[in-house]
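quick q for whoever's on today - can somebody do inverse folding on this one?? i tried earlier but teh output was garbage lol. C-alpha cells:
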C-alpha cells in the first residue's frame, strides 16, 4: 500500500512564510495603542497607507501535507465570496453531504450525481484533491433502505452495489474514501447499525474489500469522532484494524474527525494516539475539524478555541504519517453546529461575515512554525 499524499512543491520557503505571517500578526494587533502627539502641519501630501502583506494560504503553509475543508452545495453557486475563499485557501475538499447514501441513491438502483459531480468539478477546477465521504454509515440513509426488510445476503448485495457504483463513477478522481464511518459506541462496543445488525461485524471487511476492487488506487479510511484520545472507542478501532490487517483486508488510513467542544478538555494525548495508528503502517488524518462554543462567544471563548485549533494542528504535525487536516466547514455562516447542538456554534476559522478569527491566526502560526 502506498503511504502519504502526492508530493507538492512548497511555494514559499519557511523563512518567507514566517515573515509573511509576522506581517499579518503585526497588522492584526491590538487596537489599543499609546497616544501620540498630533503630527506637525505639512504641505506634503500624506503618505499612502501600505497594504499589509497577506499570510500565505493554509494550503501553502501546510507544505507537503494537505489542508482542506468540507464544502456545501448549493453554497458554492450562490455565494461567490465563499467559493473564492474555498478555492484560495485549501488544496483538498470533502463533500459535506453530497456523496452520502441518501442524496446519491434516494431510490434503490437509481443514482443522483449532481451534487457529487459538482464537488469533483470544483476540485478539478481549483487543483484540489477530493476525499470521498462516506460510503457506509448508519445515518443519512434513504427510507427505502431503513424501512426495508432484507436478508443478510440481500443487504450485502445492496451494500456492494452501492460501493461499487459510486466508487467506479469517480475512479481516479477521489484521492481517499471514508469507507466506513462511526462503527463503534463510546464504550468501544459495536454500534447497532443496519449494517451490524443485518450483516454482522464482517461488513467492514467486506466494504473495504469491495472498495479496493472498485478503485485499487484510492486510499481507504475508517473514520470516527471521539477517537482523538486513547480510550475504549479508539482502542476498539485499533484492535479492529490489527485484525483486519492480519486477515489481509485492504486498509490505508484512520480518520480522526476532531469535532471538539470547549465544554470538554482538549485530548492532550492526541498525537500519541495518532502515532500508534501510524505505527500500524497507516496514514492518519484529521478529517472533520471544528471547535464549538457556547453562543454568543466571548473573547475568552475565542482565545480558548484558538488554542484547541492550535493543539489539533500541532498533533497532526507531530506525526509524520498525518497526511493532512480537513475543516468541517471554514465559516460560521454555513456551519452545521448550531443546527445539531442548540445553543452552540461559532465553530470555524472564519466568522459568518468571512472575517478571520483568532483561531485562524493560531493555525497559521502552528503551520508556519513547523515549516
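ok took a stab at it. sequence:
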Amino acid at each position: 500500500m502506498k503511504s502519504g499524499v502526492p508530493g507538492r512543491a512548497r511555494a514559499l520557503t519557511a523563512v518567507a512564510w514566517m515573515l509573511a505571517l509576522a506581517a499579518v500578526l503585526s497588522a492584526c494587533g491590538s487596537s489599543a495603542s499609546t497616544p501620540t502627539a498630533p503630527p506637525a502641519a505639512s504641505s506634503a501630501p500624506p503618505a499612502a497607507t501600505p497594504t499589509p502583506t497577506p499570510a500565505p494560504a493554509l494550503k501553502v503553509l501546510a507544505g507537503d501535507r494537505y489542508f482542506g475543508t468540507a464544502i456545501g452545495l448549493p453554497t458554492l453557486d450562490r455565494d461567490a465570496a465563499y467559493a473564492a475563499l474555498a478555492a484560495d485557501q485549501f488544496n483538498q475538499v470533502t463533500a459535506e453531504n453530497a456523496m452520502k447514501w441518501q442524496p446519491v441513491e434516494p431510490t434503490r438502483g437509481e443514482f443522483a450525481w449532481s451534487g457529487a459531480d459538482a464537488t469533483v468539478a470544483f476540485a478539478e477546477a481549483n487543483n484540489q484533491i477530493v476525499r470521498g465521504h462516506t460510503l457506509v454509515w448508519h445515518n443519512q440513509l434513504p427510507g427505502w433502505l431503513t424501512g426495508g426488510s432484507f436478508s443478510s445476503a440481500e443487504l450485502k448485495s445492496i451494500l456492494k452495489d452501492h460501493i461499487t457504483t459510486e466508487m467506479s463513477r469517480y475512479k481516479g478522481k477521489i484521492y481517499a474514501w471514508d469507507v466506513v464511518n462511526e462503527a463503534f459506541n463510546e464504550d468501544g462496543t459495536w454500534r447497532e447499525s443496519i449494517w451490524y445488525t443485518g450483516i454482522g461485524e464482517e461488513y467492514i471487511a467486506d466494504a473495504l474489500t469491495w472498495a479496493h476492487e472498485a478503485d485499487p488506487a484510492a486510499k481507504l479510511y475508517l473514520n470516527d469522532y471521539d477517537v482523538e484520545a486513547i480510550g475504549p472507542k479508539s482502542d476498539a478501532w485499533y484492535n479492529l484494524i490489527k485484525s483486519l490487517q492480519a486477515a489481509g483486508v485492504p486498509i490505508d488510513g484512520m480518520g480522526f474527525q476532531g469535532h471538539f467542544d470547549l465544554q470538554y478538555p482538549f485530548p492532550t494525548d492526541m498525537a500519541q494516539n495518532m502515532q500508534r495508528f501510524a505505527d500500524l503502517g497507516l496514514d492518519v488524518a484529521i478529517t472533520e475539524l471544528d471547535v464549538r462554543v457556547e453562543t454568543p462567544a466571548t473573547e475568552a471563548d475565542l482565545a480558548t478555541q484558538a488554542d484547541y485549533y492550535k493543539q489539533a494542528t500541532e498533533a497532526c504535525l507531530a506525526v509524520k504519517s498525518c497526511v493532512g487536516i480537513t475543516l468541517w466547514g471554514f465559516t460560521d455562516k454555513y456551519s452545521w453546529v448550531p443546527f445539531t447542538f442548540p445553543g452552540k456554534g461559532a465553530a470555524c476559522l472564519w466568522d459568518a461575515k468571512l472575517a478571520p478569527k483568532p483561531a485562524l491566526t493560531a493555525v497559521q502560526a502552528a503551520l508556519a512554525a513547523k515549516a
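fwiw The beta strands are 66-71, 92-95, 129-136, 176-181, 219-224, 253-256, 259-261, 283-294, 322-327, 344-345. also The radius of gyration is 22 Å. so keep that in mind when u check it
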